[in-house]
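seq as requested:
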Amino acid sequence: MNKIIDGLFDTAVDLLSNMVGQIQNFASCAAEQFCGAFINPIIDAIADGVTALLGPLDKIISPAFKIVDFLLGAVDAISAIGGLFQCNEKKNCPTVKGYFVGGGFCTGEEEDEEPTNVDKILAKLSIAKGAQNLSNDFQRQFGKWDIFSDGTTLNDSGIVNANGSCYTGNPLACGAPKVTIFGGGGVGAAGRAILGGIVDNTEGLSDVVSKVGSVVGVDLLSAGSGYKTAPFVVISDSCGLGKGAFAKANINSKGEVTSITMISSGINYPVDEDIPLGIVGAVIENGGTGFDDNDTLDGFDLTIEDGIIIDAKINRVTPVDELPVLNVNTKTGSGARIKPLINALPVVEKKLQEVIDCIE
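struct tokens:
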């Protein structure tokens, strides 16, 4: 097992070196195929070693039994490979007191986590190892995978088709920007980008995008839990066209994300839906000083205590198309920083209630 582990570094280097320049657009299937290709030489090495050990047992083992087939088909056996990473030449292996089928190793010191579900990887791995026309030494070692080629063919009209099981070439279409929330010690927060300032795609920007815009808000889909500090918020798109959108997460004392406010809206983010937008709330980042109880903010009812703005409740939905600046109408106050929350306006369905025909 230590010999297998010694070879894992070189295996990873070979795989990653062959992926460089091939993957333009990362997809989850690329990770699955990488894991499958990584497991290939491990299975081969285990099969070679175990086959030699089973020699004396030939008379009681069915001739049809193949170590490689067993390893490819047994999720429980493959999950045991995880134990290899606890052992190396410089560290003693943990004492294994038992092994639960489907549950992993039991060392008696701590509860075992549920093994990673590798059914999809094993299915791809089995197909790849059995693929015909493995044209080079790399494919014979790791199997035939889409991620190590461009994954495309040309149709009769000369148009590129992404017909491989895992296409990782240049995007053939761009979706809406993705919001990624991470860090802060918590998990589970999720949001959806809200785009405004929509314009037609400019020449030379992209061949697969018809409209672009700015990220004017983030619709919080899940508050998450366990956040000790405000997590980071990253806004990106699969084509890498947009730039300049930055946002900030706000959390409460329960460790939940309560809202996400925009710092800057950026430009050139792909648009897949053009919807009416409006200001639906606000977050007070700084209450300022010196404000009077009669000071106002258009569209909001302010609560002011000791010259500090402590709350701003929306009293009407104001349609907007871009990220606005909220300014308090005051003669004495200063220093307040109030950020708007923008989201899609609700669609009001109008129905015909009654028709009266009047005939004289």
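Residues 81 and 199 are 53 Å apart (CA to CA).
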